[in-house]
Design goal:
The protein is mainly α and 268 residues long. The protein has two domains: 98 residues; 91 residues. It is 82% helix and 0% strand. The chain has twelve helices and no strands. Helix 2 packs parallel to helix 4.
């Protein structure tokens, strides 16, 4: 009994502290605010779960093995509706951007270029696309431009490249895409304004940051391995031999620097 009598005041003090913290939180946020935050959290979880399920269905819908999967366009429309719903009920730009970028990344991986372009057109003014998403939008449009030659796709690609570069100045992928666009033009017309590509190459080859050259050149090397794109990369190297040699040297310099840093890194 004596032991309990000594412990009881301590317990009461702890209870008072906990109650005080709860009251302070309620006073700080207010009960309506706490309820709102809780509701939004539950909505976030439901939307995220639904989006993940739809993304899986989207992948299955374009895979011939899943014959019972819903058509890709049906799932795509559901994803769009979900995004608009999320925008209305959740005032959190980061969450919305995360969900949108996941959808674009999934569409990119499955080669659904028309759907990516449709997302750009519908959501560009109301959602914030990430650097990666703008690059994927550019790739989708350059694919569409190569196939049917519509000038709109060319402009959409260049616009997406500029948006991607604006958000990450040393990102080489969009710069490589701009160069490839000019080579597609050359392939079609057998003549181009060489200054357009020249200016971009000069930009890539200038400055102390060789990462831009590395990233751009690396993307060109990867693209060259794809049969449908090989001739465009060849045009670039044939039209600008000395400039591309310079880009290669900067690429190798950055690569060597990174390899050296990797060797000198202490590991546990």
């Amino acid at each position: 009994m004596l032991e309990n009598a000594k412990t009881f005041p301590i317990i009461m003090e702890i209870v008072k502290i906990i109650v005080g913290v709860v009251v302070a939180l309620i006073g700080w946020f207010g009960i309506p605010e706490i309820i709102t935050r809780y509701v939004q959290l539950r909505q976030k979880i439901r939307i995220k779960t639904k989006a993940e399920k739809l993304n899986e269905q989207l992948k299955k819908g374009i895979d011939k093995k899943y014959l019972r999967a819903p058509p890709a366009f049906t799932v795509f429309n559901e994803l769009q509706d979900l995004l608009w719903y999320a925008k209305d009920v959740i005032k959190n730009k980061e969450f919305l951007q995360e969900q949108l970028n996941k959808i674009i990344r999934n569409l990119y991986k499955t080669g659904m270029n028309e759907f990516i372009q449709e997302l750009r057109a519908k959501f560009q003014n109301d959602f914030e696309f990430s650097v990666e998403s703008w690059a994927n939008i550019a790739i989708a449009n350059i694919n569409l431009y190569r196939l049917d030659g519509m000038s709109e796709y060319r402009e959409y690609c260049l616009e997406a490249c500029k948006e991607s570069i604006k958000r990450q100045g040393n990102y080489g992928t969009p710069r490589a895409l701009i160069l490839i666009i000019h080579m597609i033009d050359y392939e079609r017309k057998k003549q181009i304004n060489k200054d357009d590509a020249q200016n971009m190459i000069n930009e890539v080859n200038s400055g102390d940051d060789t990462m831009v050259s590395y990233d751009t050149y690396n993307y060109l090397l990867i693209t060259k391995k794809i049969h449908e794109w090989e001739k465009y990369i060849d045009h670039l190297f044939n039209l600008y031999p000395s400039e591309m040699d310079k880009m290669k040297n900067r690429y190798e310099k950055y690569k060597s620097t990174m390899e050296l840093k990797s060797k000198n890194t202490i590991t546990h």
